[in-house]
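User: Good morning. I'm curious how magnesium ion would be positioned relative to this chain. Could you predict the structure with it bound?
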Amino acid sequence: MPRFIALIPAAGTGSRMNNELPKQYLSLAGKPMIYHALHTLCHSSHIFRVFVILAPDDHEWNRYDWSSFADKLVVKYCGGATRADSVLNGLKAMQQTDGSIDKDDWILVHDAARPCLTIFQLDQLIDALALDEVGGLLAIPVADTLKRADSNQRVMGTESRNGLWQAQTPQMFRLGLLMDALSKVNSAAITDDASAIEALGLDPRLVLSDAYNFKVTYPQDLALAELILQKKETN
Ligand code: CTP
Ligand code: MG
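Assistant: Good morning! Here's the predicted structure, ligand included:
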């Protein structure tokens, strides 16, 4: 039976967050941000192992105690210049670390910057895709009206939001397919894993998620993430 292995790319700098500390380490509900996604992934009974991919010069990781995740956690300092490079380097390191990991095992790539992922969303994704030919991702239908801007920031027109979805993570694909896809794309031109799969001519499946699993990107996102995490704790 194929296994489910999580990979968290966490080698970014969080430039849009405007903070010297890389955003995956910013304090959120009393823990570094990445702790929350790790907690959900490591506590899922489906997930066999969780790989965290850090920048080669990361000096923050070792400041914290990660021992509560020790049974599943593997840390690799092999992040690259882009998210796609970090994921591909991570997949190669994964194969070198554990020879039993098979090309048909499922890889769930999850952003360190999505701390509000729940076990429920994770189970929905795995249930929907475990028998899928291609794989897919959590996503939500676009809710807002979409405007196209000209170079003066004036509205050129209104775009139909019909059939448009916002991609989230985890994005779940088989190891062999994902490595093949990521090694063929221009890594600077894509911002998620599904794009690389699409470039092979395949159609990843969209699995309905919700807005709570948003990506913390700008400083004002921190307060919202904290509220969602507090609500989760009291449920
Ligand atoms: N990431 C990575 N390696 C990179 C760039 C990004 O592992 N070279 C990771 C980030 O650490 C994050 C995830 O990919 O967990 C999603 O990326 P994003 O939210 O864009 O984070 P950053 O690239 O760090 O932020 P920004 O784009 O604002 O600089
Ligand atoms: Mg980025």
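The helical segments are 33-43, 83-97, 119-129, 175-184, 193-199, 221-234. The chain has six helices and eleven strands.
Let me know if you'd like a different ligand tried.
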